[in-house]
Amino acid sequence: MDLRIKIGNLTFQNPIWVASGTFGYAQEFNDFLDLNTLGAIVTKTITLQPCSGNSPPRLHEAAAGLIDAIGLQNPGIDAYLTKYLPFLKTLTPHCICSIAGNTPDDYGLLAKKLSMDSFFKIIEVNLSCPNLDKNSVIPAQSASLTFDILTQIRHHFSGLMIAKLAPNVTDLTEIARAAQRAGAHALTIANSYPALAIDALHQQFLLGHRTGGLSGPAIKPLTQKLVWEVAKQVNLPIIGVGGIQSGLDVAEYLLCGAIAVQLGTINLTEPSAYARISREFSQYLTDKQLTLALLQQYPKK
Pairing between strand 260-263 and 238-241? Predict the structure, then answer.
């Protein structure tokens, strides 16, 4: 079965990817599945300088998902290039570097560093982390800031640029259009949803950062609505992410208008889930006598 998809001038071997922040730098999952079967790998978000993240506790299981407040913990771009890049270069799937910064110039500098190595053909621009410092601005909540950051990146990076957007905005299509004007080749919809965990029995917060981001099955119908709305109004490929637990979930996102999906929280609870979900999706297509192309042609109106 041909599951290849194309975004820009790049071909991906299938539409099921793994999401940033849930798959480390890929090597951590080497014992759980064949990494060369992945559609694409989005590595954990990298910043210019090392970041220690938020104070613990940083994870809390919700009724139908996970609230995390990691806070972009990472070793910084230089350590990423020296420590993790050699292993990533041994893999077959496209490896996508997720980047984040405090200013448009930060994003530009990160893109410039990545552009120096021809291995980096794709950047995912994290504009939407929901659990940063309370004084931090989430770029994807501003159409103008989204435009400025992506424009700055385009000055330095000629490869594929994917903008990862935030779900908690009044009109996501406005932000998506700004990303398109700035030269984004695709959109990732969406990041986790701002959330809070509190313990009434002991009258205290359950996360050191107080608030975090909700992911997992609870957000799937919310995110699918966003994918569907943006797909109708913005002419960019969409990668849907949020709550995928099965092959049927993958099909749902594609029927909403996504061209690909990313597996997130399920990687933490079931490290080998990718193989199972891929089999289930292929079996769905077989049972329904559908090709991937036919599935994606279904009307989304």
Answer: parallel
Among 136, 133, 123, 75, CA closest to 96: 123
Place of tokens 């993240």: 53
Alpha helices (H) along the chain: 77-79, 85-88, 104-115, 143-154, 172-181, 220-233, 247-256, 266-269, 273-287, 292-296
Q: State how beta strands 160-164 and 122-126 pair.
A: parallel
Determine phi and psi for 99, rounding to 5 degrees: -125, 150
Read off the pLDDT of residues 134-173 as tens digits, 9 standing for 90 and up: 556 689 999 999 999 999 999 999 999 999 999 999 999 9
| Active-site residue (options: 95, 97, 129, 256) | 129
Structure tokens at 275: 């193989």
Q: Give Cα 228 to chain centroid, integer Å.
A: 17
Which residue, among 246, 254, 244, has the nearest Cα to 298 in the 3D structure? 254
Task: Please identify which residue in the block is written with the tokens 């299509």.
Answer: 173
- Residue 199 pLDDT > 70: yes
Note if the pTM is more than 0.85. Answer: yes
Residues in the chain: 301
Whole-number Å distance between alpha carbons of 33 and 272: 6
* Strand bridging mode 160-164 / 186-189: parallel
CA distance 254 to 60: 30
129 is catalytic: yes
DSSP-based three-state secondary structure for 124: strand
Sign of the alpha-carbon dihedral angle for 146, 151, 157, 162: positive
